[in-house]
Amino acid sequence: MKVTFALSACVWMLATCGAFAQAPAGASNEFQAGQPLGSVNEAGQFVKMTSNVKVYGSFRFAESCTYDPGRNLIVVMNAGVPQAQEPNDGYVSLLNPDGSVHTAKWIGATRDGLTLNHPLGSAIQNGVLYAADIDVVRTFYLATGKPGRAYPVEGATFLNGIAVTKEGTIFVSNTRPESRVYKITRDGVVTTFVEGEPLVSPNGVAIDQEGHVVVVNVGNNALLTFDPASARLIRTEHSAEGGNDGLVILPDGTKYVSSVRFGSISEIRPGQPVKVIAAGIPSAASMGYDSKQKQLIIPMNNNNAVAFVKLED
């Protein structure tokens, strides 16, 4: 099993040197999405970076990765600096499938019209990017990056993992101090889906092929499958290690779980014993699955990097 790492670069230094196209200060008060990497040449023209140059990095506490099949790009949520240091510092990067940077700050190129404080989990459904942001689920249009509807979650303290059904129903975990999973309808009606045991600091959330809601715990190694209508616990499985964060479910029912505390990736195939397919990945957080290149993309939190694990056919 081959594991490669897209290491962080000195992005802020690049920005200072003019590597990113920035709108002049005060030029617009409307939301603007960022542009792919490039620079302004001596003639004053913006030149897109040539394809023979590869840049790896652009992260600041990368928490979750989601694959956008329409553009064949990897969407990376960055929490930014701590809220106590600077509020509303979250941003979203776009990576090429090889880990090189496509757009360093796609959402977050400016703060005009944008609120994104500390995004953690993310999901893509029906052309919309969903992000768990402390006590609000925020949405963004994939075509433009422009903010869409926001769903405040009263009582939430630490929204984390998120999954969205094809119909637009949102399931989002609240990791601490209360262990909860919330359910949010397309109309914005928020209810508590599950609270307390068997949840033990719930984190990653996914929807399986039967439409069930699957949740992994940070507090132990349980994978919990719930009925989406009744919240009845249908099944309990276990990963190789606890302290889990990310959850990917493939069409054949195979589950992959990342342990943010212990750095392993567990593979759980139907009817087979659980096994570790990769290990030693620091702070292996909320991973995503690139279905075209058949690889897991694993953000590494404060390591400011993203790991890639190619899956065997």
If you had to describe this structure to a student in words, what would you say it looks like?
The chain has one helix spanning 11-16, and strands at residues 3-6, 38-40, 46-48, 62-68, 73-78, 91-95, 101-107, 119-125, 128-133, 136-141, 147-152, 159-164, 170-174, 180-184, 190-195, 202-207, 213-217, 222-226, 233-238, 244-249, 255-259, 265-268, 275-278, 288-290, 295-299, 306-310. With 313 residues, it is mostly beta strands. The chain has a single domain (3-310), classed as TolB, C-terminal domain (Neuraminidase, 6 Propeller), CATH 2.120.10.30. The strands form 7 sheets. A 4-stranded antiparallel sheet has the order 1-26-25-24, with no helix packed on it. The chain has a 4-stranded antiparallel sheet with strand order 4-5-6-7, with no helix packed on it. Strands 8-9-10-11 form a 4-stranded antiparallel sheet, with no helix packed on it. A hairpin with a 4-residue loop joins strand 24 (288-290) and strand 25. It is globular.
